[in-house]
Every structure is written in C-alpha cells, then in structure tokens.
Amino acid sequence: MPLRRSKALVKWIYENQHKMQTLRRCSSTLRYKELEESSVPSLEPVAEVAPAHEPATKPRPQLTPDISFKFDDLQVTLAAPYQLQKKPEAIDLGFGKYFTDHMMKINYHRELGGWQKPEISPFEHLSLHPAAKALHYAVQLFEGLKAYRGVDDKIRLFRPDLNMQRMNLAAQRSGLPMFDGEELIKCITRLVQIDQEWVPHSETSTLYIRPTLIGTEPTFGIIEPESALLFVILSPVSAYYKTNSDGAVSIYADPNVVRAFPGGVGNRKVGSNYGPTIEITSRAAKLGHQQVLWLFGPNHELTEVGAMNIFVVYINEDGDKQLSTPPLNGLILPGVTRRSILELAGEWKELTVKEEVLTMQRIADLNQQGRLLEMFGAGTAVVVTPISNVGYLDTNIPVPTMQQHNPVYQRLKDTLLAIQYGHIEHPFAKVIT
Ligand SMILES: Cc1ncc(COP(=O)(O)O)c(C=O)c1O
Q: What range does the record give for the signal peptide (predicted)?
C-alpha cells in the first residue's frame, strides 16, 4: 500500500474509532477500500430538512387510557416453600424494612402493543439496563396505600380508587403509560390475598402497598419511554417516624428551601419530589425537629409538612372553631387522607371547614392572640400526627395542640382508624377478603 494511502487510512481509523467493531469484523483489503471510499465527502446534495410544523391542535389531556392491562390476564406463580420469608415481630417492623413473599409486575412495551399481562411472582430483584430512563431522569412515580386487618379479621383498603387516579395523573405528566385503575385495584387485591398472612394482626401496624411505575427504555433521550414497568411490592409497617413522648412532632420551616413551585409537580407523587428533601430533613433533625414545614412565596405560605398535608384549627373572626388547610394550588399533593378529613369534618356541625391560604404571619398572629388551637399533619403513612412546635426564623412557635380538651385531630384520627379497621362500616373502606 503506498505511503499516502496508508496515511489516509490511519487518519480515517483515528476519526472513525467508534466504527472499529465493524472494521475488525471485516478486515479484508476489499473492505478497507470500501471504507476509504466512503470516508470521502459525498458531493451529492443533502436532502433539505423538512421544516418543523406546529402541531395542528394542542394535544388533549388524555385522562382515560385507550388500552390497559387486564386483571383477567393475570398470571400467578406462587413462591416455593423454601422461598417464603420469616415474618418479623411487630415491634421490629419500622417503615418499609421488610417485604412480603410475592410481588406484581406488569411490563409495557410499545412495540409489542403496549401493556403486557400482569404477573404475580415470588419477590425478586429487578434487572434494569443502566441507561433506563428512570435511573437518569427520574421518569418514575409511585403510590402509597395500606391494607388494614379489621377487628372482624377482614382486610380492607382505604379509597384505593383515589390512589389510582393520582397515579394516572402522575403517569400523564411524566410521559409514562396510563392504565385502568380498576384493573390495577383488582390485581393488587389478588396480591394482598396471596400474601394476606403478612397483613399484621394488630391495630397499630398495617401492610403498606407500594405501586411504582418506572420508565425502563435504555436510551438517553428525554422523551416518552417506549418501555416501562409497573410493579407492586408490599411491606408490613408500623410507625413512619418517632414522635416526642407526648405523641406530637416539632416541625422546622426554612423559607429558603421549597419543595414545589408553580407549574411544577408538587401535586404529583413522583420520586423527584422526595430525594431533594433529605438534606433539609436531616438539618431539621439536628436542630431537634422531626419534620419539615414546606413554605412558599414572599408571604411564607404553608403548603405541606414532610410527606403530609397540613391542617390548622383556630377560632375564626366569627368566634367559631375552624379547621383549615391550604387549597390545592398545584404545589400540594392531593392527599387521600386530606380529602377524607375535609369530607368527614364537613359533616360535623360544630366545626367550620375551609380550604384557605395560611401564612406564617397569620399563624404567629393567631398564636399571639390565643386563637391558635391545633396544628396537625395527615397522610396514609402517619394517619394524623399532632404538631406541638414550629421552628421558624430563629424562633419557636409553641402550638397548644396537646393541651386541648377533645382535640379535633384526635376525633379525626379515631374516625379514620375506626373506618380503616372496620369498627364502623363506611363507604371509604373496601373489604377485599
Ligand atoms: C408530599 C405528600 N403530601 C401529602 C401526602 C399524604 O397523601 P395521602 O393522604 O394520600 O397519603 C403524602 C403521602 O403520600 C405526600 O407524600
């Protein structure tokens, strides 16, 4: 090979290292020649790139999926006796430390027509491509609901339809495939029935259900994933976090840190809302507080507390006792417990119930005037948790929640637990066994 040609070839190899695999496989003289020729810039006119067109119409929000997986297609593989785990003692449960013997998986592959058959199988690790979109761009969402073993030994879910609606809204926002919530409830019901002995025989612990939907397509483009995985795992749980000896928590508000912002995803249960809260939660803990109070805007509006919706009880300008929570303005997760509290308390004659903007100034003023009675957080994991102190701008605002006679928080907690554990029959509870 003349020197000039071989130099050109070396140059080509240098510039086309990424194609070396091909080169190695086809290292005949003929192939070298072919490659050399193809490295010469083509004089052919480059086809004109079609101009990008504006979409003719705005995409319409699609709130019901066209196609969903079906419970009728569910395939079940039960764990072999040697795969069954020892059940932990109730006292050791903690929150999300132990998992049951089975899990559910439903794959989505666009090229195979979308949702595949749901499968219940022995609990196992997932195998994911390292480029899966969930791992890089948090193309991911989750839900949290519980199965309660009632006083009648029947197992109940609490308003699971609301979790399904919320899950579909988060899927829509994240470009993940939507599905028929009723079908997922039926599949979850079957999973809980199979692992029913894992639902604690206790009124202080429950079986936490964690449906999760992740984008699994292994490409770096920030676009709708062509493949996804919906999985459901179950964990027997007790208290979500420790309270003070009186059962209340102290919360910490730093107005410089926000959880959500207008137009963002504060109202969707996506993983990317939670990771960035860890540092401030640890800072709050070092200062002696159990949770973070999330404020927003120049007026330091209250939005949520930790992973709970926030409620305040006070004497209003008319002298009436009022239960208030901030309105769903896009920054706040539409909690199932929040909605249930508003609906239940809305029927109590002696209480005014309102969704209203609450600022830190308003809380401080109410407290100073002796009109602030209670503050509490509410959510599936914690039910209702009273708040006894707010750390804010180098001061502490003591909240007299624990000093009230017949506090509202306790009545709400008792009512919710009575529904969940079957002490009273209520349409919010769905018996599944
Ligand atoms: C940020 C946030 N707010 C509120 C809640 C309470 O919602 P739910 O009552 O549906 O559990 C949760 C828990 O899911 C949450 O993560």
A: none
For residue 149, the model assigns a pLDDT of 97
Q: How far is the CA of 309 from the centre of ligand 1 (A)?
A: 6
Mutate to test the pocket of ligand 1, among 148, 303, 380 (most ligand atoms within 8 A of CB): 380
Beta bridge partners of 398: 389
CA distances from 328 to 82, 236, 324, 335, 371 (A): 48, 31, 12, 10, 25
* Among the listed residues 164, 290, 177, 305, the one whose alpha carbon sits nearest the alpha carbon of residue 239: 290
Q: Which is nearest to 138 in space by CA: 232, 225, 214, 228?
A: 214
Where are the chain's structural domains?
Answer: 71-237, 249-431
Helix (H, G, I), strand (E, B) or coil at 420: helix
Dig out the tokens for 322 from the structure: 């009022």
* CA 339 to ligand 1: nearest atom: 9
CATH of the domain spanning 71-237: 3.30.470.10
CA 373 to chain centroid, in Å, comes to: 31
Average pLDDT for runs of 10 along the chain of length 433: 67 59 40 44 38 50 73 97 92 92 98 96 98 98 98 97 98 97 98 97 94 98 97 91 83 97 98 97 96 98 97 98 98 98 96 98 97 98 96 95 97 98 97 91
Q: Which helix (H) or strand (E) holds 122?
A: strand 119-122
Question: Identical fold at 71-237 and 249-431?
Answer: no
- CA of 199 from ligand 1 middle (Å) equals 21
Q: Provide the phi-psi class of 283: left if phi over 0, else alpha when psi is between -120 and 50, else beta.
A: alpha
> What pLDDT was estimated at residue 2?
63
Q: Which atom of ligand 1 lies nearest, measured to the CA of 338?
A: 9
- Residue 304 forms beta bridges with which residues? 294, 309
Torsion of CA 340, 93, 293, 214, to 10 degrees: -80
Token representation of residue 209: 């259900």
CA of 160 to the centre of ligand 1 (A): 14
Report how far residue 87's alpha carbon sits from residue 55's, in angstroms, rounded to the nearest whole number. Answer: 55
Q: How far is the CA of 259 from the centre of ligand 1 (A)?
A: 13
The class level of CATH for 249-431 reads alpha beta
Which residues, 6+ apart, have CB-to-CB distance to 373 below 8 Å?
313, 314, 315, 321, 400, 401, 404, 407, 408
